[in-house]
Amino acid sequence: MVSRVIPAQPFDLVIFGGTGDLARRKILPALFRRFCAGQMDREARVIGAARADLDDVGYRDFARGAIAEFDVDATCAADHLDAFLSQLSYVTLDARGDEGWDALKALLDGAERIQAFYFSVGPGLFGDLATRIEAHGLTTPDTRVVVEKPFGRDLASARALNAELARHFDETQIYRIDHYLGKETVQNLMAIRFGNTLFEPLWNSQYVDHIQITVAESGGVGTRGGYYDKSGALRDMMQNHIMQLLCLTAMEPPAKYDPHAVRDEKLKVIRALAPALSSDVVRGQYEGTDTLPGYRDEVGNEGSTTESFVALKARIGNWRWAGTPFYLRTGKRLRARASEIAVVFKDAPHSIFGADAGRHCNILTIRLQPNEGIEMGVTIKEPGPGGMRLIDVPLDMTFSDALGPDANQVPDAYERLIMDVIRGDQTLFMRGDEVEAAWEWTDPIIDMWEASNADPCPYATGSSGPDDALALMHRDGRRWREIKP
Ligand code: NAD
To answer: Which DSSP string corresponds to 62-77?
Structure first.
């Protein structure tokens, strides 16, 4: 199966923070893969802009190194590389001063084409960049700005960022990245729900017992310790990525697949979330092993109360979902790196097979990683002459099996999202009001923790999280799905 590639129009993409980790690991390799796929116009220009004292040649060397290291699929022929690099240039620039801005203006001036400014810098610089872009006359009606996470650390800071951006750009020009939305399976969630008649009639509290969303990582905080310790699992994963997955799972069918309709429906879900009760939220912190440091040692903060794990029960107060809880969990140093959304349907209302047949229910699992795919658990008769015994088996659709080898080359989320910016499609980006609503729901949980002064529950490296998280489900007569690779 060969996917159709529609070439993008010519564009200028300025990467502020173009020498940073994100540019190196994600943005430049993603652009190169789109170039190889024929989607980046030969007239397109990528301009790195950062404080490092580099010239075009130095930046091309930087990009060459990044691609060698992070184009892990090695899908692109080496002979494309020089052509791609020739479309890169660099400006030494200070977001907080005037150095470099005239050079950037000279580079961009006169070109009638799409202009995207990627703010791949800390949020503390968003305002400086926005102000200088406008002050130096770099904005055109075709200007787009892309902003990275974290978008604020609470409602007040998110509001301030939104207000700062709104002073210089229209909301239709702002692309807030949540790279989970660029994942192929996440978009497939919408395709499954709204492209089939099979699921939608059952997608409600009458038939769905509960939904579990898990984003589990096996690694610790690693080199991000300094940042992570100020953030924690709730801010780093729950408020944004998992909230987005919740929205796409729970939202009403939008009238059409367009930025307004989709984001309106997501916003309604967030606004319908009941405030979390303290008994419904568990936070944890991983312990060390003989060979691995515990959380506090890893971040170098002996008294840290930052959570590396959070599990919670969310309730959506609307007609579709009243009575069907959403159990959400995410954490580091767990048993495996595995992310999934599991829709657990109710048991059949009456078993004609008697008590011996046991309890069975259908579970639809959307796997985000590893092995992106969808699995539907169905109940069948256990083969053999031993009477009417039932077992659950998966109807498995691993994309790479069903769609052929091309499905193994699923584009990285950043490839999809950067091209959406160029196309001017905001559907997979968070709107300002959505981000604020998500913080509005998250802030009281943070306040609750701060007021309680309690330590997070410890959990063993390689486990499924703290015992209290297991109890959160057991209390309701349910259990978490196994975290397995
Ligand atoms: P980084 O520290 O590696 O790079 C920062 C970049 O900003 C560098 O190019 C630096 O030169 C530039 N910079 C700093 N101050 C500047 C100034 N005053 N003027 C001009 N340029 C300046 O950071 P990063 O890891 O690349 O992260 C960038 C943004 O992306 C952050 O908001 C981060 O939270 C977000 N993000 C990063 C990752 C990741 O994997 N690295 C993932 C998700 C989000």
So the answer is: HHHHHHHHH-TT--S-
Mean pLDDT, rounded, of the chain: 92
Q: pLDDT tens, 325-340?
A: 999 999 999 999 999 9
181-411+431-474 has which CATH code?
3.30.360.10
| Tokens describing residue 74 | 């090695």
How confident is residue 366, by pLDDT bands cut at 50, 70 and 90? very high
**Residue 413 in contact with ligand 1 by CB distance below 6 A:** no
Strand partners, 283: 310
Asked if the peptide bond before residue 150 counts as cis, ω within 30 degrees of 0, the response is: yes
Mean pLDDT of 92-97: 96
**Per-residue pLDDT tens digits for 273-319:** 999 999 999 999 999 999 999 999 999 999 999 999 999 999 999 99
Alpha helices in 255-394 (DSSP H): 259-272, 295-299
Cβ–ligand 1 distance for 236 under 6 Å, the answer: no
Q: Whose C-alpha lies nearest to ligand 1, atom 44?
A: 149
Catalytic residue among 168, 179, 210, 241: 241
Please, what CATH class does the domain formed by 11-148 belong to?
alpha beta
> Closest ligand 1 atom, CA of 26?
40
Atom of ligand 1 nearest to the CA of 50: 21
153 lines ligand 1 (CB under 6 A): no
User: Using alpha carbons only, what angle is made at residue 330 by residues 328 and 332, rounded to the nearest 5 degrees?
Assistant: 165
The domains of the chain are located at 11-148, 181-411+431-474
